């Protein structure tokens, strides 16, 4: 029994010593990652940055019963966990990521530099189209690998 425990422990030690990451160099050890720059380098992605999003020069009024993107960002804690309706222009679409479509909307409003709302959905709108969506607001959603959303509309439904 002692021999089996010793062999199991030895195998575990060798396995853990070998698992320093896919891009580890010989002799390199795993370090405590304290910030995003260190994390992206340890993952072999030293170019990881927050994507730059340009503000569209548009002016789209909220639909009846809806709110503006600026209103959502300015009072996000009040909208957390609630379903809201937003009317805006589709500025970016990323289909089929983590089983969802990721859509960026803008309506021309801005709160302290925040003007672009990201939402997840099961539909794919045409880029540049003006749509109305309704979905539940989540705050501080962290998907890892640097993808954190202070405000995210989840399960957005297209309103006709």
List keywords for this structure.
160 residues; alpha+beta; OB fold (Dihydrolipoamide Acetyltransferase, E2P); five-stranded mixed beta barrel
Tell me what you see in this structure.
The chain has 160 residues and is of the alpha+beta class. The protein folds into two domains: 2-42, no CATH class; 69-159, Nucleic acid-binding proteins (OB fold (Dihydrolipoamide Acetyltransferase, E2P)), CATH 2.40.50.140. Helix content is 21%, strand content 32%. It is built from four helices and five strands. The protein has helices spanning 2-18, 36-42, 69-74, 76-79; strands at 83-97, 100-106, 117-121, 130-142, 148-159. The chain has a five-stranded mixed β-barrel with strand order 1-2-3-5-4. A hairpin with a 2-residue loop joins strand 1 and strand 2 (100-106). The longest helix has 17 residues, at 2-18. The chain is globular and about 75 Å long. The N and C termini lie far apart (69 Å). The model is unreliable at 12-48 (pLDDT under 50).
């Amino acid at each position: 029994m002692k021999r089996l425990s010793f062999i199991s422990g030895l195998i575990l030690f060798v396995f853990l010593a070998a698992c320093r990451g896919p891009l580890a160099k010989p002799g390199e050890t795993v370090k405590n990652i304290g910030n995003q720059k260190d994390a992206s380098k340890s993952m072999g992605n030293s170019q990881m940055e927050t994507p730059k999003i340009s503000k569209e020069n548009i002016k789209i009024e909220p639909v009846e019963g809806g709110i503006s993107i600026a209103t959502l960002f300015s009072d996000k804690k009040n909208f957390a966990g609630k379903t809201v309706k937003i009317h805006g222009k589709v500025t970016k679409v990323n289909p089929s990521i983590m089983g969802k479509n990721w859509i960026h909307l803008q309506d021309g409003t801005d709160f302290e530099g925040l003007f672009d709302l990201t939402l997840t959905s099961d539909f794919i709108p045409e880029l540049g189209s003006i749509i109305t969506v309704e979905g539940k607001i989540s705050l501080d959603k962290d998907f890892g690998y640097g993808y954190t959303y202070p405000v995210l509309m989840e399960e957005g439904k297209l309103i006709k």
